[in-house]
């Protein structure tokens, strides 16, 4: 175990199971956003939580602007954590841009992962007509960046409400806003530019790991057509339309989120393992 990486990425390990299950946050968030879902997996999995360098309780001094100017830098964080723990065939659970980060990690070292669980994924947030509509015009994203530079607290308030949806439950948006506000604005701005303007559509056909796409309803960040695009272009993918609304179902609708993940994994991991054991006996 590499203690340097464990400290750098604030790695936490929980659970009684042997199968590793690593949770990767989305933009501007730390591992605490998973607290509503991880308890459901502690009995059967080895749950691994971490923070990207520069976020949460990671070692901010390890932040390198050049490394994290692309999503590959964040993907390397994931691989570093997995290597530090010497794990392979891990179930990767990512949210939002964290899904792309996991996908990139799987392209570099496919043996590290057995399945990719993608919650609200998007390979490209920009509209690229006539064949792809990610949900945002370039001017809209530039406007978000401009607001971040001029009024970070104001941006955090607006963006948290937009991302979370579910206006009748303002406490959820407040929690997400707190996550944004706990991050160094300079690092958050760099992450935003890296995430919002990335285009990883050409990587999709090269992914060799089976994946589950969890598509939220009424998601303004990753609309339904984006999830369907992913399903169409991502080999070995399974698509599930959620009743959950907004972009953060692991926070707003944790029961449905965990139910769909567990249902998928029972088919992909638990059942084959059970059948193998049965044949052996």
Explain this structure.
The chain is α/β, with parallel strands linked by helices and 281 residues long. The chain has a single domain, classed as Alpha/Beta hydrolase fold, catalytic domain (Rossmann fold, 3-Layer(aba) Sandwich), CATH 3.40.50.1820. It is 44% helix and 17% strand. The chain contains ten helices and nine strands. It has helices spanning 3-8, 71-84, 97-108, 138-150, 152-164, 170-181, 185-196, 224-233, 249-252, 254-280; strands at residues 12-14, 19-24, 45-49, 90-95, 113-119, 127-128, 132-133, 211-217, 237-245. Helix 8 (224-233) links the parallel strand 8 (211-217) and strand 9. Mean pLDDT is 93; it is low at 274-281.
Layout of helices and strands:
Blueprint (H helix, E strand, L loop, with lengths): L2 H6 L3 E3 L4 E6 L20 E5 L21 H14 L5 E6 L1 H12 L4 E7 L7 E2 L3 E2 L4 H13 L1 H13 L5 H12 L3 H12 L14 E7 L6 H10 L3 E9 L3 H4 L1 H27 L1
Parallel strand pairs: 2-3, 2-4, 4-5, 5-8, 8-9
Antiparallel strand pairs: 1-3, 6-7
Helix pairs in contact: 2-3, 4-5, 4-7, 5-6
In short:
With 281 residues, this protein is α/β, with parallel strands linked by helices. It is 44% helix and 17% strand.
Query: Quick one: CATH class?
Result: Alpha Beta
Sheet/helix structural class: alpha/beta
Which sequence of strands runs across the widest sheet? Answer: 1-3-2-4-5-8-9
Helical region count? 10
- What order do the helices and strands follow? HEEEHEHEEEHHHHEHEHH
Mean pLDDT: 93
Low-confidence stretches: 274-281
Instruction: Please describe the biggest sheet, giving its number of strands, its sense, and whether it closes into a barrel.
Output: 7 strands, mixed
Task: Report how far apart the termini are.
Answer: 35 Å
Rg, nearest Å:
18 Å
Approximate shape:
globular
DSSP strand (E) fraction?
15-25%
């Amino acid at each position: 175990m590499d203690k340097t990486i464990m400290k750098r990425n604030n790695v936490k390990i929980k659970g009684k199971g042997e199968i590793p299950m690593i949770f990767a946050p989305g933009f501007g968030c730390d591992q605490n956003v998973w607290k509503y879902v991880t308890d459901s997996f502690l009995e059967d999995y080895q749950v691994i939580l971490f923070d990207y360098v520069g976020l949460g309780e990671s070692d901010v001094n390890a932040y390198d602007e050049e490394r994290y100017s692309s999503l590959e830098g964040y993907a390397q964080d994931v691989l570093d954590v997995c290597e530090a723990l010497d794990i392979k065939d891990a179930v990767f659970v990512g949210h939002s841009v964290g899904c792309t980060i996991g996908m990139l990690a799987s392209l570099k070292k496919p043996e590290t992962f057995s399945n990719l669980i993608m919650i609200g994924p998007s390979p490209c947030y920009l509209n690229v007509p006539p064949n792809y509509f990610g949900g945002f015009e370039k001017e809209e994203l530039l406007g978000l960046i401009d607001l971040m530079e001029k009024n970070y607290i104001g941006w955090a308030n607006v963006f948290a409400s937009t991302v979370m949806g579910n206006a009748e439950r303002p406490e959820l948006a407040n929690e997400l806003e707190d996550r944004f506000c706990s991050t160094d604005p300079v690092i958050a701005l760099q992450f935003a530019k890296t995430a919002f303007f990335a285009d990883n559509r050409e990587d999709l056909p090269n992914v060799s790991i089976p994946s589950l796409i969890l598509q939220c309803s009424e998601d303004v960040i990753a609309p339904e057509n984006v999830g369907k695009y992913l399903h169409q272009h991502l080999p070995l993918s399974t698509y599930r339309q959620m009743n959950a609304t907004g972009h953060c179902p692991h926070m707003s609708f944790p029961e449905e989120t965990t139910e769909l993940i567990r249902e998928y994994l029972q088919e992909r991991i638990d059942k084959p393992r059970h059948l193998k054991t049965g044949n052996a006996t």
